[in-house]
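In this supplementary section we document a worked example of the pipeline. Step one takes a protein sequence of length 96 as its only input; no multiple sequence alignment statistics are reported here. Step two produces a three-dimensional model, which step three serialises into structure tokens for compact storage. The input and output of this example are shown verbatim.
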Amino acid sequence: MPDASPVTNGWSPFLDATSTGYWFLTGSETACNAAAECTLEELKTSLNDGGEGATIYTAAVGKGRDNLWIGAVDGLRVNQTIYDFETSGVKERRAG
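The serialised model returned by step three reads:
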């Protein structure tokens, strides 16, 4: 849940949810849930329990429930992969 976009009714700059906002999981793997949000660092620390590494099965992008949003997401980064959504399909590229 990144901080609010600084732009309304237009393209925003890239939002870096790794340094702002908060994170939570929907399962019971950690205490970081919808009622107890965590920073990304707190979430990563809570998952570092010596067991198997975490797996991302899905990711969702939304803006809340107040008004309808019709928009686009581009440059979605998950770990070291950036997903660019183009008219010809999704292109994957390595970050950095």
